[in-house]
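Record Cytochrome c552, 224 aa.
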Amino acid sequence: MRHAQTLRKRFCLLLLAVIGLPAAALDLDRAKDVYGPCAACHGPFGAGGKQGEYPRISGQPPKYIEQQLQAFQVQSRLNLPMYPYTRERELDAEDMKLLAAYLAQIELPTRPPVFKDSDDALARLLAMEKVMIIPRAEGNIENGKAVYQKDCAVCHGRRGQGRGMFPMLVGQYTNYLQKQIDAYLQAERPHDEEGAKTGALYRLKAGDVKDVLAYLTTLQAAEQ
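=>
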């Protein structure tokens, strides 16, 4: 019993270290309680599904997370799996802000850690579970860089880290990004506030989109 309690305590301490959240900045107990149901799909660290069926939400700008939660709740962005986690749970504005701040501060390294001989199995397991490496996508990297810096960087940042209401793209699953691009182009998801098909995305050729996605997979090494 004592051994099990020690392991649980160590697990909690390591979890906080992995997530990297200052206890003074957030109500961690409340944040973890609010995030709890989300982990069923997005994982304990917000890394999403291994095949991109669920997006990475850790590290996203907090304003973007808030905006999307609100959109799911009022169904201006239709997503049936998200309905019970936003509207039926009746997430209020405070919980949304807390959840967004919690996710924004989770860091997922892009390189496996270097372990010490003193690291036990639990420490090694937790450290490896948070490593997130997106496989390189095929495409013309130089063209992707040129297109991205010309048409995408003004909103998503020069290194794809996102800003304000615009999401982080680097470190996101390539097939998830492609799925969202298809949804924008098919008017299933609005790409701007006006909903008009006048943004940069609608001017890109399919080959350019492929190249941009390939370019984004080359940026993740600079994340950590």
